[in-house]
Design a protein that fits this description.
- With 201 residues, this protein is of the alpha/beta class.
- Helix 2 runs parallel beside helix 3.
- The chain is built from six helices and seven strands, in the order ααβαβαββαβαββ.
- It has one domain: Rossmann fold.
- It has a seven-stranded mixed β-sheet with strand order 3-2-1-4-5-7-6.
Length: 201
Amino acid sequence: MREDKNENRWDKLLQIHTMGRDDSRSDLYRYPYEPTPYCVLERMANTGMIRKGNTLLDYGCGKGRVDFFLSAQTRCQSIGVEYDDRIYAKAMENKKAAASGARTEFVLESAENFPVPVEVDRVYFFNPFSLEILRKAMARLLESYYENPREIQLFFYYPSDAYISYLMTVPELEFLDEIDCMDLFPGGDSRERVVIFTIQE
């Protein structure tokens, strides 16, 4: 119950509507819409790893919670990519009212087709899609990196073993850090963490 209160409180503060899960367009490749809990985002914002000069790319952004919250808390710019037109429409609706709407933009596109802007240097994933699509998204990210070499940090919340195994095999990636979130939820789920990788010049 306390969790729901925190979720409601932040949605109200940010003047957005992002609660609830949506399975209606999920399949083997694209997973259901489920917003990242605000308590996890608070922990991420407090690391100092995302700041005013950064541009955050949020894959499978849903209704835009990560984008609105992190741009409000850290003053970063954010770009949300969403393939589901109905959920994208909700993100755009939120943008009109959101306190941090001016620093956020949303793109209706599938991750594997989205050309990553050269200013992007922070990337967020909350298990938005299958490993197959992750590989294609990673290829897009690396294209952007080689076009404009810079340090890019990738944040993976609640990562699957398959994701971690794959990421460990990408030569350009280096494990950087981990934000433990197990204490935020009951049940002792070891996936409750944000694993951070970096691509460096």
